[in-house]
Every structure is written in structure tokens, then in C-alpha cells.
């Protein structure tokens, strides 16, 4: 089952935001995330806030969900206006889940239209939905493109049948090139998501998946090491000895192979787990998370952030639907980040990206760690020294990406 929501400060029923969110808001981009909490099958490794039909129970339905989420989007726009936040057209919209494309394409179009009506869309706004390869066809994707979507992110995960089986994925490898071609035919950019380190997956299996992904020539590619989350089906299988535990050394080999193969194919890493063909095909929505921009997260369990205030919605679709029907904020709780917490989070996130973290913004102890990190081959020495007049920044090397937690720990000691 999905992980438990954290506790926090009580969230007001009217969603009112404190005056602190106004500071610097005019200089921050604004995005929208819409969580669609439905899946046809619960994958054994997943602890996201998602539900199959059998898990929903009464009082919640997929059929009414688009209307409920649209209600929250209007509610959110009203809350932001009441707080006195500057008018900012939406730069990025991301539909995630779950499987957003289990809903009719017209439902996604309806929710996007509500975003456009309430806030407006910035010129060139990036509009993305996640999709399973077996949850869409060309007609579905054409409806999305006509509604204003610009990207689709397919959960490919692997091209090897036994790996897909272990992950409980429902599509076949042969389906991926079909939907990639369909997305391209209607003018959508394509991102592929991969997972490496699945129990039983060999280095040769992983290379086969990379070959298949590159044959599709996606605009963008994300690749994540499998993490075994407590309480998942996969965690239970490992505990019972039914499948092997992930091997950290093999994970590292897989990542090195991944980075080398993508670089050779013309892709550039811009975040530890993300590569793009060009700067224009980076995921601007995800970059907004890593650089501390503002976003409203709509839907059960969705998280939002405004100027150091973070809040998260009630988890279950039934509780969410009840809040929406009563005109109440769906927020479960919230927290105001201290200056120290905001600094630590900024170091944690911005040292993951190729643009790096400005050394001048580190504490004295953090700056003192730079020489050792260069000597250990964990950060780029030229970037840290500010070669050719550039601002000195912390940018991880390949080894530093593999040991990202060590880099962050040294900078925050």
C-alpha cells in the first residue's frame, strides 16, 4: 500500500496562505502538478499513492475524478489570489500518477483547460502526461495534442520480458515503438522512463533495454535505480527469499554503462537520473522542483510548494472527493521550512543537476570541503574554480553522481 503521509502543522480549511509566500514570488516560475491516483495493476515495487479499482471502495470513482481535480484547481487559483500572489501564467503542467491515461483523453483535456482558464499558460508552456505503453493509441494521443499537451513520458522500464514480469508491468516490449511512433505522428515530444537493478536483471539485460530505448530515439530519457520500498510486494518477496536483493555494485556498473551509452548517442545528462538530446528537451517541470520554484499540486496525496511553505493533500480518493464536495481545502497538513532546512534542501537538490550549486552560497564549512571533494574526484575541479570567468559551482563528476549522498554530506557538515 502507499506510504503514510507525514504529519505537520494543521492546514487551514480555507487553504489560506501566509504572507511569507509573497517574498520573491514575482521571480519564481509557477507550475501545476495533477496527480491521477489510478492504476490497472499495482506494480510490486511501487509505493506511490495509487489505487486499483478493487482498492477504491465506495465514495470514489474514476468517472468523477476530472471534475473533482478541476474543482481543486479553481480552489487553488482562488487561494493564491486571496494571498495576493502576483499573476503568473503557468510555465509547466505535469500529469502523473498512477496512470493518468487510464482516464479518457477528454478528462485530461478538461483538467488542462481548467489550468488555462484559471491561470493562463505561458508562451511555450511545457505540458506533459505520463502514460503506460498499453494505455494509449494514436487517437488518444491526438486528442491530447489538440488539447495542448506537448510531451508524453512513457513508462518503458525495460525491454526484457522477465524483467517486466518481475516489475508487474502489463505491456510487452513490442508496444513501445508503436506508441512512440504514434506520439511523434501527432507532434508530441517523447520521454522514456527506465528502471535498472531489478532482481534477476543482468548487465546484458540492461544493455538490451538501453539498445531498445535508443532505437526509439526519444527526446528525453530518465533512468532510476530500483529502490525496494518497505511494505511493497517486492520487499516481501525479497524478505521471503523469492527474489534476490538488488546489488549495489551492479547498480553502479549499470549506471556507468547507461551514461556512456547515452553520451555516445548524443544525449547529455542534466540531472543524476535524466538525459536529454538538447537543452530544449529537458523536463522543465522536474527542473522546477530541483530549483525550488512554486507549484500547486492537485489530487489525492499531491504535494505543493510556495516560497518555502509546503503542504500535502489527503491521500485517499474518497477523502479527497469529500473535501472537494464540501468546498474545503484538501490539504492534510503543511510545514514552513526554516532557513536552515531550505539551504540543506537546496544543496541536496542543486548538486544533483549539471548546472550545479553556487559555491558562494555554501556555508564556511561547505566551502572548506570543496578541495577534498575535488581531490576525491567527486566534483568537477574546473567548475569549482570558475574557469573562464564562470561562477564557481559544485558540479558532480560521474563518480560524484554515484556517490551523491557523500557529496551532500560533506557540503552540509
From TrEMBL:
Its main location: cytoplasm. The keyword Cell wall biogenesis/degradation does not apply. Keywords: 4Fe-4S, Chaperone, Cytoplasm, Heme, Iron, Iron-sulfur, Metal-binding, S-adenosyl-L-methionine. Pfam families: Radical_SAM. It comes from the Bacteria. It is found in: Cytoplasm. Residues 24-268 form the Radical SAM core domain. InterPro entries: Aldolase_TIM, Coproporphyrinogen-III_oxidase, Elp3/MiaA/NifB-like_rSAM, HemW-like, rSAM, rSAM_sf. Gene3D superfamilies: Aldolase class I (3.20.20.70). The keyword Cytoplasm applies. PANTHER family: COPROPORPHYRINIGEN III OXIDASE, RADICAL S-ADENOSYL METHIONINE DOMAIN-CONTAINING PROTEIN 1, MITOCHONDRIAL. Belongs to the anaerobic coproporphyrinogen-III oxidase family. HemW subfamily. Probably acts as a heme chaperone, transferring heme to an unknown acceptor. Binds one molecule of heme per monomer, possibly covalently. Binds 1 [4Fe-4S] cluster. The cluster is coordinated with 3 cysteines and an exchangeable S-adenosyl-L-methionine. This is Heme chaperone HemW.
